[in-house]
Amino acid sequence: MTQPVHGKEYQEDKRQVAKNIRQFGQTDVADQQPEISIHTINIIGQIEGHMVLPPKNKTTKYEHIIPQLVAVEQNPKIKGLLVILNTVGGDVEAGLAIAEMLESMRKPTVSLVLGGGHSIGLPIALACRYSIAAETATMTIHPLRLSGGMIIGIPQTFEYMEKMQDRIVRFITRHSAISEQRYKELMFRTGDLVRDVGSILMGREAMNEGLINEVGGLGTAVAKLEELIRLAEESQGGLQ
User: Are 81 and 105 in contact (CB under 8 A)?
Assistant: First the structure.
């Protein structure tokens, strides 16, 4: 029995999928999936910003994520966005840029933390309209750190770091039910992290602290996003 021969279009699709996996870490991008109403973006590994990380590091490049968010917002066939996170954190400014773009999107967004949503990954998760974490997911809360590079020991350097830290704290407390005082208590706690200050929260602990909305998995996240899409469509229908 002869095997079916796939045409040029099929081979081109396979090449495009392979290219997307290499460049973006996923099988499709927002402007290449005309039949799917929910788009998924992965935030995996370390968030790469202004500095290029070594090839051995698993990274998510913010210059790849931002154009996709624009494409999702502009594509009328995409009704909602699912953001899946398993990240150790990374570049603070890049992470906040992603979070602020997610916050400003008009379309429904849901985040799902699998494995870890550490450090600057937490604001990204909270920037979505609804946040979900797996039972076994962990989230690390700690003060702002500088890794690598030269630090100039002048007052302006420390003032900049303090302002950046305040920016992160304000963003997190504005997008969750945790108070600023409680968040800072978790941020400066001693004993959880080896030779460091901060806290590690499991999925249910993060929910009990008011950081995330719900504990669940993929089915929970998709169901919630479909609910938000339906409510958005009903609201738009009522305005017409």
Answer: yes
